[in-house]
Write a structure and sequence with these properties.
CATH superfamily of the largest domain: P-loop containing nucleotide triphosphate hydrolases
Helix content: 25-40%
Strand content: 15-25%
Structural class: alpha/beta
Bound molecules: glutamine
CATH architecture of the largest domain: 3-Layer(aba) Sandwich
CATH topology of the largest domain: Rossmann fold
Oligomer: single chain
Shape: globular
Number of strands: 25
Length: 543
């Protein structure tokens, strides 16, 4: 039976609960334990798939096709354990399950209530679909005191009571520095723990985010008022790179306190060499490159979380620092704006995934600029579709080419996908169906064509990558585009869906229909990102 670690947050949001959980899991893993991370989100959307990135940041897609919270991306990047559909749940999904059961008559005769029906469904979710994990870390979204979080907190309180010594509670708080007083303040932490205890949860460990080291006296005070041993009040100071978090937590004794709270005395020592090497590469790079990301949600970098991490991973692989320069794609639509001027010190251009017409013409211009000026270009999903439209318009004699996502173009070289296959199954979508959960989602196989650049990069002829899109490049345009210098170098096993398009006479111009950024890890950088950054390094040596 697995041991459970419940992680709640207090005082303010955005303290990095997801990262804290991911880092703790990686430390337990470094000691040889098998871990799984889960997230319970109190909002009412059934999943974050229909939310705008401005609302929620990136939507992270799992192999089994779930659209989940971006924290699951941190979990995978830190542990390498692929997340599953059953690792993220929301209030919406919990209610959906309970209401379906009610309609079916499963509770016939009874009144269906938050307690016990909703809390039971939450408990069942948190504890089922496990294999032989030693530790399951369950993060509760939001902040203690939120009305919508209450059923989740009640559910984990009950689990703590039932699991006895096999469950612990970690509370993440903030210890702010008040400049006027010249002091760190412990009161917000005291209040947050008081709130937690009023609903019956006594934290075992407090993880205190702080900009300054917390003096022993303050830690003692927090421990005393919050009923937590002083050594279990862990300071979590800001670090230079997120990949330094596991090492810094270990130094503060976080994993040791977790084991102690479970009464585990014979835990193996952790092997942290992997993290030491990553941190060394991140903090002592041998050079640097500038990468332009031309997107639409650039004010909120959480919208491109996996992407920016993957670029950093590419940098780790090449021992260089990657400076990401964010560009609002609409800038390039202005005829007054000269892309050469804007992109002067840039060594490679990446156009990431996106939805809708706004900013699309700017992305098309960025692809054209990269193609004509031999600048490495990486088009991901929408970025591939835009590169194909650009090729059709400017090389293949179709000046009005477009995608049905913008409306009616002549011709629409990218169109709505109504049918696609996974294994022996055909998945079908009707054109006027629901928007939620009707995309091609999750891992699909792709065959790489002989003598292609991607085959060399991957070092194999068959890959699996994760998808999240409604439209696809129409295979009918393969021949015309191949005549003008493109190669359809990755295809779905039936050969009907173009998954990768590359340009032949160009140092690095690759568009992929899938999202490789969802599978990259600091200790296992994705081959495409590794190769893309390598191409940027070569470019930087030329200029
Ligand atoms: N909007 C495009 C589609 O649905 C691309 C999606 C994406 O980039 N993830 O096909």
């Amino acid at each position: 039976m697995a041991r459970f670690i419940f992680i709640t947050g207090g005082v303010v949001s955005s303290l990095g609960k997801g990262l804290a959980g991911a880092a703790l899991a990686s430390l337990l893993q470094a000691r040889g334990y098998k871990v799984r991370l889960r997230k319970l989100d109190p909002y009412i959307n059934v999943d974050p798939g229909t939310m705008n990135p401005y609302e929620h940041g990136e939507c992270y897609v799992t192999d089994d096709g779930a659209e989940t919270d971006l924290d699951l991306g941190h979990y995978e990047r830190f542990t390498g354990v692929p997340s599953k559909q059953t690792d993220n749940v929301t209030t919406g999904r919990i209610y959906q399950t309970v209401i379906r059961k009610e309609r079916r008559g499963d509770y016939l005769g009874g009144t269906v209530q938050v307690i016990p029906h909703i809390t039971n469904a939450i408990k069942e979710f948190a504890t089922s679909n496990l294999e032989d994990e030693d530790f399951v870390l369950v993060e509760i979204g939001g902040t203690v005191g939120d009305i919508e979080g209450l059923p989740f907190l009640e559910a984990i309180r009950q689990l703590g009571y039932e699991l006895k010594n096999d469950a612990i509670f970690i509370h993440l708080t903030l210890v702010p520095y008040i400049a006027a007083a010249g002091e760190l303040k412990t009161k917000p932490t005291q209040h947050s723990v008081k709130e937690l205890r009023s609903i019956g949860i006594q934290p075992d460990i407090l993880l205190c985010r702080s900009e300054q080291p917390i003096p022993a006296g303050q830690r003692r005070k927090i421990g005393l008022f919050c009923n937590v041993p002083e050594e279990a009040v862990i300071q979590a100071l800001d670090v230079r790179s997120i990949y330094e978090v596991p090492l810094s937590y270990h130094e503060e004794g976080f994993d040791e306190q977790v084991l102690k709270a479970f009464g585990i005395e014979d835990a193996p020592e952790p092997d942290l060499s992997k993290w030491q090497e990553i941190v060394e590469r991140v903090l002592q790079p041998e050079g640097e490159v500038n990468i332009a990301v031309v997107g639409k949600y650039i004010e909120l970098q959480d919208a491109y979380k996996s992407l920016s991490e993957s670029l950093i991973h590419g940098g780790i692989a090449n021992k260089v620092k990657v400076n990401i320069k964010w560009f609002e794609s609409e800038t390039f639509e202005d005829d007054e704006v000269n892309p050469a001027h804007e992109l002067e010190n840039v060594h490679a251009i990446l156009v990431p995934g996106g939805f809708g017409e706004r900013g699309a013409e700017g992305k098309i211009k960025a692809a054209q600029y990269a193609r004509e000026n031999m600048i490495p270009y990486f088009g991901i999903c929408y970025g591939m579709q835009m590169a194909v439209i650009e090729g059709c318009r400017n090389l293949a004699g179709m000046p009005n080419a477009g995608t049905s996502e913008f409306g009616c173009y002549d011709p629409n070289v990218v169109g709505l996908m109504t049918e696609w296959t996974r294994g022996n199954e055909t998945e079908i979508r009707s054109e006027d169906g629901d928007l939620g959960g009707t995309m091609r989602l999750g891992a699909y196989p792709c065959d790489l064509v002989e003598d292609s650049q991607v085959r060399e990069i991957y070092g194999t002829d068959h890959i699996d990558e994760r998808h999240r899109h409604r439209f696809e490049v129409n295979i009918a345009y393969k021949d015309v585009l191949e005549k003008v210098g493109y190669k359809f170098s990755g295809l779905s096993p039936h050969g009907d869906l173009p998954e990768i398009v590359e340009l032949i006479d160009h140092p690095w111009f690759i568009g992929v229909q899938f999202h490789p950024e969802l599978k990259s890890k600091p200790f296992d950088p994705h081959p495409l990102f590794k190769s893309f950054i390598e191409a940027a390094v070569s470019k930087s040596r030329l200029v």
